[in-house]
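During the second year of the project, the team shifted from modelling isolated chains to modelling whole assemblies. The rationale, set out in the original proposal, was that interfaces cannot be judged from single-chain predictions alone. As a representative example for this report, we include one of the complexes processed in the last quarter. Its constituent sequences, exactly as entered into the pipeline, are reproduced here:
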Amino acid sequence: MSAIKVRIHRLTWQWIAQIEDAVWPREGPLPASSKIQFLQMHNGIGKTTTLYLLRSLFTGIPPDPVTYARARYKGPKKEVGKSKFSVDLEIDGRPCILGLFLDTESCEHEFFTVVAGAGLESGWKPPHSFKKSFGNNPEFAELFLFDTQQAGAMTESLPAHVVDTAIREVARLAGVHDLITKGLDQIYESKIDQMGEGDGQRILTRTRNAIAKLEEIVKTRNGELDDTKKLVSKTQVDLTDAVKKKGELEAESALREKLETANERIAKARDQLATHTNALYHLYLEPSNLPPSVWSTVQEYYAKLDDLRIPELIASEVVDRLLEKGICICGEPLTQVHQKHLTAFKERMYGADVVQEIFSIKNSVKEATSGAGNVETVIEKARGAKEKLDIERGVYRRLRGRLTGDVEKRLKLLDKEIGDLRGVESGLKDAQKAIDCSDSSEIDANPQYTGKAFLATGELSQTASDYDSCRNLVVIRRGLRQLRQKEANVQGVARMRMAHELVEDTMRLAFDKVMRRMKDALLEEANLHLPQLQTTGMRIHSFDEGIELVDQQGVLQRGANTGGELSAQYSFLMALRKLGEIDVPIVLDNPTKGLDGTAANAFQTRLPSMFDQCLMLIYPLERAAIGDLVKRADHLATLHRADEEVSGLAPDGRAAVGPVVVNEDDSWFVNYDPPRAEV
Amino acid sequence: MTEFSLKKTISSAIGEACSEHKDRVDDAKILRNVISNLFEQAAEGDADDEFVNTQINQLEPHVLESDG
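Output from the structure prediction step:
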């Protein structure tokens, strides 16, 4: 049997956000067999407003100013009526309507309730079981009326009081917890007050005064404990922010390293450009690298040098031979006249070196082909080097633009801030421990926890003022118990007092054992879901201090990114639903926000199967991310303006101005306002 | 994971807690009954003063004087 069974049957809006007057579903209540429902509408029509107004109706807590602002009618109609929102519920098999009249201008509200047989009544008056679970319990309600944007924006996973509250509710231990922590003492006090006063009036009065004083100290310490816990949470949020900022700055620091690398690349590209430019210069100095049209003319000129019949060099050698032998090439001996003539001829000739050079040039020119192709290659290389240089300069400029200056200085400041915050956190945790430590050996080892509560004999003082300096609640409560025993002795009800203490001790012990086992079972179950919803290897380490996450190396981490936070909370919710005796619908606003492909797929498969009713409030673009779930849904509805076409626009392409209507046509749902093709 | 039963978990936790305090009563069954009744009624939100006092009165004759 469930602790509570709730089902949403119908929603009604009047002058809420952009909705004039609408009822979902249009005809009659939602069939009992319907498990997955989608309500699709454009952003701004009233999705998130619906979720937040549902939270008010589930908890009986009036809307906050933001919800009033959201709920204010902002549609095209000028004549506006009174704003009203209601939900038809089935609670433990019986119908109940919870509603709100809202004056969004003056931020005033009036709850109303309709239950069978009683008609409409003013005020928030749901059945007892519902009131007990959700009444004034926003933390519990928010687990089921789930705002993904809010959950994803959390810098820290669910805190301890939310986790503990949820476990107590689903395990039906909330009443037990109240009885142990407050009820039993109040009942005892009230019984004692009713008893007649016996002998020892003076002792009794003094003891009762001491009891009253110690009760006051317990109240003060509890207040201090709450304040300290809040401060610890706030400090942890500040610390998370500072660590996040440091991470960003370190990324900036990494940017500097990238800048240095970019600079090195620029220098390298510049060197390459210089090398290619130099090569090009030398190529231009080489005549054969002239363009082919010019080079062929040069070749032609040198080719004509072949027409010279006796090259000077040969002539010079021939003359030397003739003079040496003294015989002409015709065989006749050379006379002195001939010798003189030949010597003069030789002297008139150009130097042999010059001739040699000319012949060499002639041959190389004749053999060489135009090197213009080489020039083109080098020009191409130089151009490539120039482009690379430009790219590297661009990279450098972009990196430079991302630097915000004074990174090192700000990193040092943040390091100091983080150090200070860690110091504050540690101090606060010590202060918290002094108050709520329950380990007796640790309490005994820390006299600052106990102040003057213990006498030199090791016994607890029976003088109330000795507890002023005592921080530890366990010690103060023990002192209080001692005084109550004394009071009971004086009144002759010692045995009743002992029975009362035995009940309290045994119930507390049993309660702690159930909570421990619930947390262990929840941990095991939640860690079956979590790996399916994210790919980072993150796991839930414990529920002792709220949801504590560890990364894949097992290192404790504070909070996670949007998808991680969402996955952790969904996993907790799934585990809670599996283990607890609850049958409550889950309402999700923008369910896939922050979930990537893998997580969105796992979400579609796992989450709805955990709940008997799953109502999802989505905008048209979100539809594609959860296509499988849409196919499995048994109720699809679109809230759109009456003059809108399925394209999401009025027929003339202008903004639609007709009243918002509930359209339950499946074809409309799947085709409504499709993503526009890229122009 | 093994099938988790909330009812069994609560019942066994009450049994263990009573067992740990059995030296404070002359009849452990009475303690167990009283604690089970209180748990059940408190879970339903119906553990009013009268009910709690009735349970404590039922236990009172069985409480043993402590040495301290």
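DSSP finds three helices and no strands in chain B. Chain B has one domain: 6-62.
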